[in-house]
Design brief:
The complex is a heterodimer of chains A (309) and B (293).
Chain A: H1 11-48, E1 51-52, E2 60-61, H2 65-71, H3 74-130, H4 133-144, H5 150-157, H6 174-198, H7 203-211, H8 216-227, H9 229-245, H10 248-253, H11 265-274, H12 279-308
Antiparallel strand pairs in A: 1-2
Chain B: H1 12-18, H2 24-51, H3 55-61, H4 73-81, H5 84-115, H6 121-131, H7 137-149, H8 156-180, H9 184-192, H10 197-226, H11 229-234, H12 243-249, H13 251-254, H14 258-285, H15 287-290
Classes of the chains: A mainly alpha (309), B mainly alpha (293).
């Protein structure tokens, strides 16, 4: 900053040159903090994944042994299968339902029943998005409770006692039960993004199709879904990233159980870090997950650049 | 993102020229939609209804009925048992400082990138972008060791520092895009008037982008409020827990009966509901902005 006092001659050019240099100083706090907190932690985690360590004393370098062990660990594979199933609950189903609800709100509710109804619907669906995930977790554990829980009580009161379940205690149902909550949370996000995208579509397209006798469903499939391609790809990728990262819902609702029926990669690494104290092993799981996610992020970056070009 | 400016742009214009009397099929769609939305709000309704019941009332009539009387004892019992006031203060402290420090860091970096157009800026942004997809699990153990090493373990400041940096990676990315569109003539004019880069930042750029930074700060505040893993690992003692953390780890101890658990859920979601009502427009408009996260 001090260098900024230039001689008046050819001032403009010099200012540009020297101020360019001074601008680097503004990067120092951000880059230093980033390197010290995120960079160092990440690099250290990758290093730890190559060691055997219980958190005390010195980590012992063992090369790729943890990764070899991972390949033969059935729980590791299971955790990724569960993560992929959560892609359904957090990415695919919310995207499909979000498109449908969004189109209903945009095409029907908003024009025919006014903005008050349409914003009530958007806000109503969006509310689960703003609740801390741990609160949603305890709320749903309570709703899904086998005896005093709301869901089973509701099923009994509408004459469907056969459908009552031990939702979180049954290893065949636990993953599904957590998924239901995740769908409940995610829809608001997809609806809000898609409705805002629909506002961007030229209404003339719909009007022309309507004149040609296209039904609503045809217009939805051909115009809306096609025009929303950029939004859909962004939503699918971001929600997929979120699905692969899922931790809090599993921690709060099932702790990975019963057995390992709801274990996901992030919970599995947390479990090895802090429960079994196999720090190197936990670090290896987290590293595998982070590589998968970074690849996805790069895909996301590429797609955005292509859209901007 | 793809259409950050068109986010939730209200549909008034279309409404005006298209609005006709709804026919029977439209009413059917409307009814189904309302039922779906009410089903979505049903879990929250259940938490509210049951939080105000007495345990006896719950035992007798189950969760679905309305409370016979408005009973505040479950809520106040939960509040005092977990010392909820303390958790609220902790969450407010952490979120407030993260918003403040995070936005400051973001702005300084974004100023160099967006206005200064320093060399290597694209590489920096790409690194930041990849960084905010890194799962926190892939950093948590080293953060845990580091916090212990610097005597910041079980101290709110460890969490504040970490989240300020994590949020600023996103903030830099977003603010850089905003500042890259900042009119170059204004900066040029300030330079010609003899303002250095610091004065240009403080007196010229900052006042203009302040609204954007307020939005960013609101987001940082709420994102941090909802964070779980890092507080879980770094803040083990009861006195340092945040709201989101207390919900997950202490509720089990104090909520043996169903009405207290409903009360816990209600008390836990109230602050967020409050922010939402205050910042609804900002929050919903910012959803597409947050989509990258």
């Amino acid at each position: 900053m001090a260098k900024n006092r230039n001689a008046p001659a050819s001032r403009k050019l010099q200012t540009r040159e020297s101020s360019r240099a001074t601008y680097y100083w503004y990067l120092v706090p951000g880059l230093f903090a980033f390197a010290a907190v995120i960079g160092a932690s990440y690099v250290r985690n990758v290093y730890l994944s190559l060691t055997k360590w219980n958190g005390l004393g010195k980590p012992k370098f063992i090369g790729f042994t943890n990764y070899q062990e991972l390949i033969h660990d059935p729980t590791f594979w299971k955790s990724f299968i569960h993560a992929f199933e959560f892609i359904g609950a957090m990415a695919l189903i919310p995207t499909a339902l979000g498109l449908l609800f969004g189109a209903v709100i945009f095409d029907y509710i908003s024009p025919k029943f006014g903005n008050a109804s349409s914003s009530f619907m958007r806000v109503g669906l969006f509310v689960p998005q703003i609740i801390p995930i741990t609160v949603s977790g305890i709320l749903w554990v309570w709703l899904l409770e086998p005896n005093s829980g709301v869901i089973n009580n509701f099923l009994e009161s509408v004459g469907l006692p056969n459908l009552t379940q031990n939702w979180l205690g049954d290893s065949r149902l636990a993953l599904l039960s957590v998924s239901i909550m995740l769908i409940w949370i995610q829809i608001g996000y997809t609806v809000v993004i898609f409705v805002s995208g629909m506002a961007r579509i030229d209404p003339a397209l719909h009007e022309a199709a309507q004149l040609d006798g296209a039904t609503w469903l045809q217009r939805f499939r051909i115009i809306t879904v096609n025009q929303l391609r950029p939004e859909i790809s962004v939503v699918l990728l971001t929600t997929t990233v979120a699905a692969l990262k899922v931790f809090a819902p599993v921690y709060v609702m099932t702790q990975g159980g019963p057995g390992d029926s709801t274990v996901v990669p992030s919970f599995f690494s947390y479990f090895h870090f802090f429960t079994t104290q196999k720090v190197g092993y936990g670090a290896a799981i987290a590293t595998v997950l982070s590589v998968i996610l970074s690849v996805l992020a790069i895909v996301l970056l590429r797609m955005q650049n292509r859209e901007e070009a | 993102m793809t259409s950050a400016s068109a986010t939730i742009s209200p549909t008034e214009s279309i409404v005006k020229h298209k609005r006709k009397k709804p026919g029977p099929s439209a009413w059917l769609v409307f009814t189904i939609s309302i039922v779906v939305v009410l089903a979505w709000l049903f879990p929250l309704w259940m938490a509210i209804v049951n939080a105000f019941k007495t345990p006896e009332d719950f035992l007798q009539s189950g969760p679905l009925s309305l409370p016979k009387s408005m009973d505040l004892s479950s809520i106040s019992k939960f509040w005092t048992d977990v010392d909820y006031t303390r958790k609220l203060l902790n969450s407010i402290t952490v979120s407030f400082f993260v918003a403040l420090i995070g936005v400051t860091l973001s702005f300084l970096s974004a100023y160099a990138i967006g206005i200064g157009k320093v060399r290597g800026r694209f590489a920096i942004l790409a690194i930041f972008m990849v960084a905010f997809t890194i799962p926190q699990e892939a950093m948590i153990y080293p953060m845990y060791s580091m916090a212990k090493q610097f005597n910041l373990y079980d101290n709110l400041w460890s969490v504040i520092i970490i989240f300020s940096v994590i949020q600023s990676a996103f903030g830099t990315y977003m603010l850089s895009a905003v500042l890259a569109d900042f009119p170059a003539e204004i900066v040029e004019a300030a330079h010609i008037d003899g303002a250095g880069s610091f004065r240009t930042m403080w007196n010229v750029v900052l006042p203009i982008v302040r609204p954007t930074m307020t939005v960013l700060a609101t987001f940082f505040f709420i994102w941090t409020w909802n964070e779980f893993l890092i507080p879980l690992v770094l803040l083990p003692s009861n006195d340092n827990q945040t709201v989101a953390l207390a919900m997950a780890v202490t509720t089990g101890q104090y909520t043996s009966d169903p009405t207290t658990r409903a009360a816990a859920a209600l008390v836990g979601l109230l602050p967020s509901l409050g922010f939402f009502l205050i910042f609804q427009r900002t929050l919903m408009r910012g959803v597409t902005l947050g989509a990258i996260k």
